[in-house]
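Table 4 source record.
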Amino acid sequence: MNELNSKFNLIQKSLRLISGFGIFTERIGSECAGN
């Protein structure tokens, strides 16, 4: 159970990282389009 919980935690962290990276690249893309 604890192993599963740690795996889920890791997945959640990586998903947050991926979504954060997506927002970051989207912001850069819109800035490039604005210029």
